[in-house]
Amino acid sequence: MPIEILQILVFVGITALIAGLTWRRCVQETSHLNLSSTRDEVFLAGRGLGWVVVAGSITLTNLSTDQLVGMNGNQMALLAWWELSAVVGLIILGKIILPVYYRYECTTTTELLEKRYGDFRIRALIGLLFLLGNVFIFIPAMLYSGSLFMQTLFNVELPLLVIASAFALMGAAYAVLGGLRAVAISDAYSGVLLLSLGMVVVVLSLAAINFDFSGIPIDRLTLIGNNESPIPWHTLLTGMLFIQIFYWGTNQTITQRAMASPTAEEGQKGVMAAAAIRLLIIPPMVVIPGIVSFKLYGDIGDAAFGRIVGDVLPLWLSGAFAAAIAAAVLTSVNSVLNASTALYVCDIHERFIGSAPNLRRLNLIITVAFVVIGLAMVPVYAQAESIINLVQELYGLLSMPILSAFIVGLLFRGVSAGAAIVAVVLGVLLYGFFSFVWAPFHYIHMMFITVIFCVSAALLVSRWVFHATPYWAPAILFAQPDDTNIAR
Questions:
Q1: Residue 56 near residue 185 (C-beta atoms within 8 A)
Q2: Which pTM was predicted?
């Protein structure tokens, strides 16, 4: 049998095996339950995810080709800071923010905003911003980077859009047919495969250069970035922490997994396990293959990861790794799709269109619509010089204004929801000005400036325009589930 055919058969076989194991586990877990198409079942897996599944799902939902391809595509150690600082974000989620979501019995993270501000409008606005980010930034970035990896690894001439369409269809099938339960279980199975083979790639990459980093420029190896680097050292003291708090603590796609456990304690165990994985395993996976590829091939950008994997792994094992990468792409795409549908249904449809929708049918319609939009954006992302830097810069338009609404809502009472909305809109405009008109600082610094501006604006506008006086009352310490943040 030709080795190339064996490679493809291994890829197809493992992909099918993961799907089969996921389906079997879903049937086992639900056979004794009388489950209907409720919000909890479709969007929170019936609140039945154990900590192991939570940890695996959080890890693989984040660890997709936009990380593996994008970070290795920079071909420098500095990008490890995204993963190292993520540990802090996960700890803050587990120890501080997650118990609040459970206390308020939230289905979506934005539901917490409605209960803290006492106003549905802030929930609808933030939910809409999350949707825009998912549909126009994350879904197309994942589809593009996953397709690029497959194209590079298998050395095929299929158009990226064709490969992206296959990923989109399979990811949508998971999200529609199985809901969060199928998504999370497939994450856990795929995570074991991807992390194991990912570390094999790291070791074999190092062996390919005899563990010798000589000849690689020092700026490719240092963890202290200068002003011209993707992550200058001083950005670690400003916007980086807020980026991580936003992503891990308020992003529905991530927190949805931790909110789907039977208890807050079970969810916290999963989050802490995900933090340990993030600290010990992920950093070498996202930088070492890229650095090695620089020594072997020179500056080849986002093609680095696919090429090094194709060269260091035996062809049959590269088929297994391709299956792991495909699983990572699928689980990330279907995770974002499931989270997006939850936000649309809970934050927009039920309030403004119909209060008792057929969730399975609506899930199908919305998922298909989001997939079509994401695919249409793939050619745009194909023009990016660095996919990871583009995603971070674009998402700054939404992330810091959104985070400001959570900060104000979680730390203060008596703030007018109207003031928070004004601050969010001003924050989007401010960061847009920084990005497209005048960029005096690195974009991570501009994120820091934006979130401080938004929080200050919300408090000041509430006091002087809406005549509602904010006062300090952190949700984690004082608020009860039936409290609201109604302005006095």
A1: no
A2: 0.85
Residue among 333, 331, 344 at smallest CA distance from 132: 344
Q: Which domain holds residue 274?
A: 3-387
Cβ atoms of 68 and 146 within 8 Å: the answer is no
pLDDT at 1: 42
Q: What is the pLDDT of residue 30?
A: 61
Instruction: Report the amino acid identity of residue 302.
Output: D
Residue 29 burial by Cβ neighbours in a 10 Å radius (0-12, 13-18, 19+): middle
Predicted confidence (pLDDT) per residue in 376-427, tens digit: 988 888 887 767 677 777 888 899 999 999 999 999 999 999 999 999 999 9
Total structural domains within the chain? 1
Mean pLDDT of 248-274: 92
- Residue 444 belongs to some domain of the structure: no
Kind and range of the H or E element at 471? strand 471-472
Q: What is the signed CA dihedral for 317, 194, 84, 142, rounded to 10 degrees?
A: 100
Any idea which residue has 């891990």 for tokens?
248
CB 487 within 8 A of CB 416: yes
* Closest to 423 measured CA to CA, from 440, 439, 408: 408
> CA 429, 419, 253: angle at the middle one, nearest 5?
65
SS3 for 29? helix
Q: Which residues contact 241 (CB under 8 A, 6 or more apart)?
A: 85, 88, 89
